[in-house]
Design goal:
Number of strands: 10
Largest sheet: 5 strands, mixed
Length: about 800
């Protein structure tokens, strides 16, 4: 859990005993009310009784007959040595409350500012430190509003004013106008903090995605991932561990929302998105630093990448672009999985057994949520609800079926009891929804088992420790092997159970499974495999995936041999070595230019005439010598690479251990160190952007009309800044994650979609109900689809991935689409 940088604990007031800072006037010092003659002893504080106490500014310590006595500076009340400091604290709080509050506030502020300056990895701008020093209560108000996405009018509530006046010394923000100004100010100051940290890194990774809000407004989400401080030689030299290369929580994960940009009515064409991205990169001084961009496979993303490379970066030739052979396009692995699963579902829905069974599950999921009586009775039993479907997250369909199969018997028992006590139309009609025969269950069980690896990968990619470039090789090659086994099972091969490695005996199916149903599912897997192979070719053309494995000291060259045959492993190693040669040459040229003071960017017309490898086709530049002609004449020292390759493999290490390995050896491998840090922090999914979209979706409901895009951007970005820089003591609460919030969401959905029970009665009473399934369109509204129109339905679902498939086909042909195509989904 992240620790709050502004700790609310009683400070060490040793620094507050001076008259200039403790707020106590010596003219108002308490009068000695008599008693024995007292003198301060030389060893007053030798026992450690009061010097360690936070109450020292309120009490003077004297020695009387060898024993210490504390006397209140304001009323003379005495406490002998050993007296509970709790009683002394009560005295200061209750008898001298005004002085106590004033003094305590100042020393807490001083302590908090000390915490600001003692950062672990990420540095804060001086402006935000100064702002907190001036008025910490205002910053507290901003934290509350951003964490809960509270309406700005929250600060004008009378209860909030009362809390501020009666329970807090100092004022929280109590004006909507002031709150808006302060939020914008804090957002600007935290952007300065991001810029401060980006200055000390290089070869950063961007994640991009587009999301459409319920009100129809589109947003471009941009997230940045980078290794902190690895370009800051001073910070590295002063650091006593590799923690300086981790985030403030000590984890190898440093991701920040860069911006949340409203596209308004702009078309989502590659050219327009490229212009928006370039403006963003300039704003955060990233033109020289972006080495990789992670996006999904939509056509306009390929067009965006093409425009960025050919119309911008190939002309400017920034320092991060050249060594990587062009800013690399990393295709979101989660999206690749989602497309495969969409192919599988689309094929299976043509099968009447699956179509009918899955349709009933969808219907049950809706009724469980939207019928008040059904919902309450099911909740009492503790049986899980079937998840609702998503129009774009096809893997959620797997989860729906899995939950149903796991709880099939429990659902049956629950419904049997419900049918005995409830005799209404819904209950009687629900009986048909539970009419599953043995064949239905066997079909669904086999489907779950065969596709379980896809779900396991989906969950793994959500893990911040897994979604990084060195794991890309394992992801693609494991899927390649998995699909090969599915093909063998389709051809009739029986899979033997294995004690080691991956056991594919689940592909055999149960003895009661009908052969036609088994073939149906495996044929759907074959269709998904054809789509996957297209992405695999694009993966194989990107040498960064293989190099990331070799530069991982826990994998090294052996990591290649573990997932592929010897001949291919040798070829991939040589591919990585060729990349290193080019990287070393570009790195050395860059440093030579700096050493001679020649850091200006040449005119574009001159640069176009140069025969540089980056003018060649980006996807193939490592496979031919033609691409490196401009650098072939330059000598390159490869000793650093060969020495690294000959290092022993780090056995059993984690990502943190791998980063620590590089930290210790950074002086021995200065060029490889920078590259390795970059690849460790390069993401293979856009899950971080999607999590931001999920959060935005909870907040930007249609009933929150006053939350405009500008305020939404400010809240989203500032909330993330506060989180990543440790302003919250623990992870901020997600809106809608509590049981109360769930009930509110349920009420909102019920009112907007199934407002009255008659809708369910009509739905269930329809004589064609068994041929109906409930779907969601791209706008998120539920609608009914007749089974007789299944071909039209399937065609509509296929169209949602048509752009992605077209993009893959064009990339495979070596072309780059610059079409004005809207993003799919």
């Amino acid at each position: 859990m992240q620790q709050h940088i502004i700790q609310q604990r009683l400070p060490d007031l040793a620094n507050a005993t001076e008259s200039s800072s403790d707020g106590l006037s010596r003219d108002n010092s308490p009068v000695d009310h008599g008693g024995a003659s007292q003198q301060k002893g030389k060893n007053d504080k030798s026992s450690g009784w009061m010097p360690e106490s936070t109450l020292e500014p309120f009490f003077e310590v004297f020695t009387v007959n060898g024993s210490q006595i504390s006397k209140c500076r304001y009323c003379g009340k005495r406490y002998p040595e050993g007296e509970s400091t709790g009683n002394m604290a009560k005295h200061a709080r209750n008898v001298h409350s005004g002085v106590y509050a004033s003094t305590n506030e100042k020393v807490k502020k001083a302590r908090s500012l000390d915490t600001f300056s003692n950062r672990r990895s990420l540095r804060l701008s001086q402006s935000i430190k100064n702002e907190y020093k001036l008025n910490p209560k205002m910053l507290r108000t901003a934290e509350i509003v951003t964490e809960g996405f509270l309406p700005f009018s929250f600060v004008q509530m009378s209860s909030w004013r009362r809390i501020s006046e009666e329970y807090v010394s100092g004022s929280f923000i109590q004006s909507r106008t002031t709150l808006t100004k302060k939020l914008n100010l804090y957002a600007s100051q935290m952007d300065e903090s991001i810029l401060l940290n980006l200055r000390d890194t290089h070869f950063v990774n961007l994640q991009l995605d587009i999301w459409t809000a319920p009100n129809g407004e589109a947003f471009l989400g941009a997230v940045i991932s980078f290794a902190p401080n690895f370009m800051n030689a001073t910070a590295l030299d002063l650091a006593d561990s590799s923690r300086v290369l981790l985030n403030d929580s000590g984890k190898p994960h440093n991701v920040h929302i860069l911006d949340f940009i409203s596209l308004k009515r702009k078309k989502h064409s590659g050219e327009i998105l490229c212009d928006v991205l370039v403006d963003l990169m300039k704003k955060f001084n990233l033109m020289e630093k972006v080495a990789t961009i992670t996006m999904d496979n939509a056509t306009n993303n390929g067009s965006l990448h093409s425009y960025l490379i050919h119309n911008k970066l190939n002309i400017l030739k920034p320092s991060a672009h050249n060594p990587f052979g062009g800013t690399r396009y990393i295709r979101c692995a989660s999206h690749v999985l989602n497309i495969q699963f969409q192919k599988i579902l689309s094929q299976l829905k043509l099968n009447t057994v699956f179509y009918g069974a899955y349709g009933k599950i969808l219907k049950l999921a809706k009724i469980m949520r939207f019928s008040t009586r059904i919902n309450s009775t099911l909740k009492e039993t503790g049986i899980p609800f079937i998840p609702l479907e998503s129009p774009t997250r096809w893997m959620l369909s797997w989860r729906q079926i899995d939950v149903f199969i796991e709880n099939f018997s429990a659902y049956g028992s629950w419904f049997a009891k419900l049918a005995e006590s409830e005799k209404d139309i819904i209950t009687s009609q629900l009986r048909d929804a539970f009419a599953f025969d043995r064949r239905d269950i066997d079909f669904l069980k086999y489907f779950i088992e065969v596709t379980r690896p896809l779900m396991e990968f989906t969950l793994a990619l959500q893990d911040e420790d897994y979604s990084n470039l060195p794991n890309g090789l394992k992801f693609y090659y494991t899927l390649k092997h998995y699909y090969q086994k599915c093909t063998e099972a389709l051809e009739g091969r029986n899979m033997k159970a294995k004690q080691t490695g991956i056991d594919f005996s689940f592909l055999n199916g149960q003895s009661t499974l009908q052969e036609a149903d088994k073939s149906c599912i495996l044929e759907a897997m074959s269709i998904a495999q054809n789509s996957f192979l297209g992405y695999l070719v694009l993966f194989e053309r990107n040498p960064l995936y293989y190099l990331a494995v070799v530069l991982d000291p826990t994998a090294k060259v052996e990591g290649l041999h573990e997932v592929m045959h010897h001949e291919e492993a040798q070829r991939r190693y040589l591919q990585s070595e060729n990349f290193i040669k080019t990287y070393f040459k570009q790195h050395d040229l860059e440093h030579q230019s700096r050493d001679t003071g020649n850091q200006t960017i040449s005119e574009p017309t001159i640069r176009r005439k140069e025969k540089s490898f980056i003018d060649a086709h980006l996807s193939d530049f490592m496979d031919t010598d033609e691409n490196c002609k401009g650098l072939d004449a330059l000598p390159v020292a490869m000793e650093e690479w060969h020495q690294y390759v000959n290092e022993p493999r780090l056995v059993g290490g984690s990502r943190s251990a791998a980063i620590d390995w590089w930290f210790v050896r950074r002086a021995a491998y200065p060029r490889l160190f920078k590259l390795a840090m970059s690849l460790f922090y390069t993401k293979i999914t856009t899950c971080d952007v999607e999590r931001a979209f999920s959060l935005a979706g909870r907040v930007m409901r249609k009933d929150r009309t006053r939350l405009n895009s500008t305020n939404m951007r400010t809240l989203m970005v500032l909330r993330d800044r506060f989180t990543q820089f440790g302003f919250y003591k623990s992870a901020p609460m997600m809106p809608g994650q509590s049981e109360i919030d769930f009930e509110e969401d349920l009420e909102y959905l019920s009112a907007s979609e199934f407002d009255i029970e008659d809708d369910l009665n009509r739905l269930l009473h329809d004589p064609q109900e068994e041929s109906m399934i409930v779907e969601s369109n791209v706008d998120g509204k539920f609608q009914l689809s007749d089974k007789t129109n299944s071909q039209d339905y399937m065609k509509a679902q296929e169209n949602s991935s048509e752009d992605e498939e077209t993009c893959v086909e064009k990339d495979l042909d070596g072309e780059s689409s610059i079409a004005d195509a809207r993003i799919s989904g």
